[in-house]
Design brief:
The chain has 342 residues and is an alpha/beta fold. The chain has eleven helices and 15 strands.
Amino acid sequence: MNRSPVLWLIEQEVVDLVSLEDAIEALEAGLVQEDGGGAKNVAKALSTWGDGNSMHSLGSIFVSKGYAGFKTWVKTKPGGAAIFALFNSNSGSLVAMIEAGALGQMRTAGVSGLATRWLSKIDAQDMALIGTGAQSLTQIAATAAVRPINRLRVFSPTPERRRAFIDKARTLFQFPIDESASVQEAVEGAEIVTCITRSSEPFLKAEFLSSGCHVNAVGAILPANAELEQDVFDRANLVVVDYLPNVKAASREFIERFQNGPGNWDDIKSLGKVIAEGRQRAPGVDVSLFKALGMGLSDLSIAVMVYERACQAGIGKSLPPPVRAKPRWGASREGNLVGVDA
């Protein structure tokens, strides 16, 4: 087995090595690999407890590149932590451990940007953002990386937090950013609508949406949460997801529509297939809808870029590789211990 050192990379090194724009390109290449069979996802493992606490694990493999990995994280109200373990898929050796908070933010925002690139109108410029949490600034940046945004309207339910967010956003982006007093006010006339919330009840109604708009619904990733009213699906004649098995397992909105309601799962496309087939938005689409719950391949695509650039630049801390040790045990009560080697 390969006994090369394991590379440890901290958050600051990750963001020094890869920008959000880089992440979008890595995601696009990775999703094309998935559609062609060169990459595979492992379905998400998820457990929840208490008041909104959760733990997650996402895995994937790049058969074509020789990498496999898992991102694991725990999220609680006081905070959370995430780590990505990167393996050589040919030898089975662990090659890197990467702090994955920033990596996860780039993945979440990057896949929204990628979906916007492929599913929104090519000349879309007017954006609405619903939600002002930790992921929201990168959602704006990812959209601005793929479309020439000239106006942004923002809504979240707490006025003080909303205004503080807008004040900060105005220092980072050059286009006008306006405060909205309701979801409807923010969304009216918008060509791109991004929802990034932890809402326990749906709030986005079909009547709010302009014909020709694109919706990124990327905030409700727990089964108890929802952002979309069911009538949005009545107008969405292009529905795309990051990874359907995860959506089937954990999206309340999609389960209500496609498992318990009139929808047909076969009508949903994966973003990887849309990209691989070069299917840009058709002129007749009323509303396009993208749902992402996270998938391992998104994290792996960016983690591989981080790791390869770190190796080229000599960045990171080398740790000794894992060395197997035999377990030991003491004598049993019956005195029938036969050995100490496992």
